Amino acid sequence: MSTNTRPSPEIVTFGESMGLLTAKDTRGLEYAATLDKSFGGAESNLAIGVSRLGHTSGWFGRLGNDPIGNMILKAIRGEGVDVSRARMSDKEPTGLMIRENASGKATVHYYRKLSAASAITPEDLDTDYIAGAQILHVTGITAAISASGLATVEAAIHIAKQAGVKVSFDPNLRLKLWSAEEARPVLLRLAEQADYFLPGLDEMKLLYNEEDDQKVLERLSAMNAVCIVKGGPDLTYVLVNGTLTEVPYFKADHVLDTVGAGDGFCAGFLSGLIKGYSPQEATRLGNLTGSMVIQAVGDWEALPTWEQVEDKLNNVAHVER
């Protein structure tokens, strides 16, 4: 399908965005009197993060034509993200996740089976829209939610490759969607097609079935992709053509909510690439945006603007002098 009537955003992504209900009561969902309403989704979080950092981004996917779906679409659009390729379904509902923090233990309950997003197919792709971007970002979540979701990811990567568009891939391994054994061959196959592979170190230990950090990095160094490995000991690993660089984290003054940190990192990293930064410089920016996200509450609400990032960088530079 092709309906392109205007230039594509610099970064295009797609996937499932779900309504998010959060029980504020520390006694847990069963006894909570009220729930906060928002939404979340790795890909839409990233698109919002990129937009806030001053670049153009586009997100698409399928949402139910219901109150939650309408809320999500309006909110993403309101953040300056192009949602012109999103589709509203009258047949399937918008997925839902409910989060609780009972007795200090965070738990998420998903209600996404047979959701509108899981019904996405390669026919939902706008070839020209993807081909006109600089970077296509995909995640393993879309590959996990349904067979047609995986087929759509593979088709989108093919379109990008044919058009010379760089492909960014975050495996986002979700063990509530599939087991490590089921995910392993699929995610590693997709990783081989990426130009930028953005896994977490713990994810790669599961996918490689390997506990030794050094052996995991050695295997990744053989990949053609630029590998950015999150979750090292106070640092992020950058592997470019087999050469390893360690980029330190930015210190977070107070950690309030770690949800969304990975999406914040990816938004910063990809924005850095669009700005012309080297992978190492882009990783430093990603480390900063990730550290800023965890100092406030929310999946995407805490994603920083470019002005906030510049203020933070100026403060860091001042302290370093």
From TrEMBL:
The keyword Cell membrane does not apply. Keywords: Kinase, Transferase. Coiled coil: none annotated. Transmembrane segments: none annotated. Residues 10-305 form the Carbohydrate kinase PfkB domain. PROSITE patterns: PFKB_KINASES_2. InterPro entries: Carb_kinase_PfkB-like, Carboh/pur_kinase_PfkB_CS, PfkB_dom, Ribokinase-like. It comes from the Bacteria. Belongs to the carbohydrate kinase PfkB family. This is 2-dehydro-3-deoxygluconokinase. It comes from Paenibacillus pabuli.
